[in-house]
Amino acid sequence: MADVNSLLDSIRERRATIGVIGLGYVGLPLVLIFAEAGFTVVGFDIDPRKKEALERGQSYLRHIAAERIANAFVGGRASAETDFERLGECDAIIVCVPTPLGHHREPDLSYIRNTADAIAQHLRAGQLVVLESTTYPGTTREELLPRFEARGLRCGTDFFLAFSPEREDPGNEKFNTKNIPKIVGGLDAPSLELASALYGAAIDHIVPVSTPEVAESAKLLENIFRAVNIALVNEMKIVLERMGINVWEVIEAARTKPFGFMPFYPGPGLGGHCIPLDPFYLTWKAAEHGTWARFIELAGEINTFMPRYVVDRTVEAINDSGVSVRGARILVLGLSYKPNIDDDRESPSFELIELLRERGAEVAYCDPFIPVARRVRKYDLQMTSVPCTAEEFAKYDAILLSTPHAQFKDAALYRGAKLVVDTRNVVPADQLPDTRVVRA
To answer: Average per-residue pLDDT in the chain?
Structure first.
């Protein structure tokens, strides 16, 4: 039987060693805030390039300063590993691995299951394990708990288990890992107390809830709320454009209401690691329980359709200019899924490029944050960014703005452009009398 008070004391006194599995957009910030709070931290990732970069004090995430990396990893407070041999040294283990979708939009828990199996091999009495990966309600209890108890240890007495959803927003200048409230749900009272103490040692505000299932569901609700409202405004855009009404002006008018309205904005499709994927975790789990989340499924259909809608609008605009899309030179602006960061996960720009290529267009892209298009889950574009200059932009038959980077709001970039298709309402059309600007 583990001594709960001993582990609590080691957390409160910063003597506990913390392991973080997965050193991406979620795990790396956790390593840094715990190291900065005075803990010894071991980061685990199967990618040796991350380990090498961290040991050199280099950042591979643009929004994280290299100085913070160097202070933690070169300074000796944190270390990086590519195998799990050191898990036994860790008093608390936080799991931040991907939860993608399969080919049929079913949850892919392979990363969670493989990581849980690896933890189970090294699990010892007195350890706390917290899952942060977004998933359907019941995953912590149904997937992690049996794997750990198969070792002959009991949760709540020998080891402790909790779920705490990540709430990272890369590039957000106001909210970060330290000041975003942290939801925590434990499988039992000791697990909740320990997990709350762990996060409370480095994060400003902890929100304890009754079970891991509540914490898992809260994360899904947050993302489904955004997905559904984005689908609503995307559908409004399609409808209002048919009526000749500017949806952006409509949104700005509606947002003047001081209560009962929250503005959401249309775009070329969903991007990021959460909103395009997480809602389908709940729809899949709902079907398992004999019910169907039709509203969520409909929102998913609308958002999934948006890249094709944008490409159709782009083709129409090119044809109206007297140019055939087959052989047309088109420049897509932005490969990341949100402005001013280098995060390309699930970015709709990849699909826009592929769809335009299927129509016979010659496509290039420009993104000052992503100079080389990396291979992602469904796409391998094998492209590099062209320069972000007016001279370059003038070479193309059409420019399709997908990501509203700050650089792309400069009217001077478009002064020689023939046609600009703007999916984000950021191109200053009023300053471009000789350039045709079409919203899509």
So the answer is: 94
392 touches 386 (CB < 8 A): yes
Q: Please, where in the chain does CATH 3.40.50.720 lie?
A: 4-210, 213-440
**Distances, alpha carbon 91 to alpha carbons 111, 146, 192, 270, 273, in Å:** 22, 20, 15, 38, 29
- The CATH fold of domain 213-440: Rossmann fold (3.40.50)
CA–CA distance, 340 with 347 (Å, rounded to integer) = 14
Cα separation, 332 vs 404, in Å, equals 11
Q: State the Cα–Cα distance between residues 347 and 337, nearest whole angstrom.
A: 4
4-210: CATH number: 3.40.50.720
Closest of 272, 275, 172 to residue 223, by C-alpha: 275
Does this model's pTM top 0.90?
Answer: yes
Q: Please report the pLDDT score of residue 110 as a whole number.
A: 95
Predicted confidence at residue 246, as pLDDT, reads 96
Mean pLDDT of 354-379: 93
Known catalytic residues are: 274
For residue 379, pLDDT beyond 90: no
